[in-house]
Amino acid sequence: MKKAPPSDRPPRRDAATPTSARRPPARRGAAAPTAVPPRTAAAPASVKLQRVLAQAGLGSRADMEQAIAAGRVTVNGDAAHIGQRVRAGDVVKFDGRLVRWQAQPTRLPRVLAYHKPTGEVVTLDDPDNRPTVFRQLPRLRSGKWMAVGRLDINTEGLLLFTDSGELANRLMHPRFGLEREYAVRVLGALSAEERQRLLEGVALEDGPAQFRSLEEGGGDGANRWYRVTIAEGRNREVRRMFEAVGHAVSRLIRVRYGAVALPRGLRRGAFVELEPRAVVELMQAAGVPLPLPPTPPRRRAGPPRGAGPRPSRPPAPERGARASGARAPQPTRRRNG
Known about the structure:
The chain has six helices and 17 strands. It has 337 residues and is α+β, with helices and mostly antiparallel strands. One of its GO terms (molecular function) is RNA binding.
């Protein structure tokens, strides 16, 4: 009997029921729970310069610190320094161009979910002229797209982009521990001892690493699929961890980043923009304050324009009536023949 070839696709897993859908029914007569409004931050008196530049979409905080150290940023005409704070009214320029900034943003950042295929690199300019992920993204009027983490050239799956350097920096920071979930195809099945080592931690060149969870995903023959979650994003970390226990990774797909999952049906090389509700959830998970509502324009003192009685106008003359001061037409006299 001929064996079926090993599947090239990771096995599907039914979506779990959200935690919010598992609440017990409310008791009769119990008071309704009070909705907690989303956290917003009041506009501070002064903010760090690198944060202002990151919020403007010019790059991450680390990139902006390097730009400040290189003398590419000025404040009120003077060269800026690392750690400098700016206030409302300060004139900030980046590479000689004026930066329009606010102490506290008044709009949500934009976030894209991109399905990265293998063969693309996560960089703006590649010296080897390889295709980059940024060539598929829409253009921005100001700022630039920043990738949330990286995927190596042989890894595919979910890659997030945002126009907010502050949000990108928080989403990547290990302090917030946002989970990354991967579907991994390896050569050979893991033994119980190898599974335990991967969950407890293995030694890598840049320090120990461990999976938060490791589940079997099926597979036939020598190829086996696994679902793993990890709370950091070091270079080729998932591949190196499996290699540390003697298994080579033949395919690696990122299927989730935090609460954002790879949209089902999204083809490789395509993207979708997240809805505002999903962006808010992402900001709250990363500890980013929500933007303040825009300030309404000031009204002029006194009654609003158009209020009050209108100036009177003289009534229009009736049709056929004689205008005042006009000479009345004389009747035509008939001559006697």
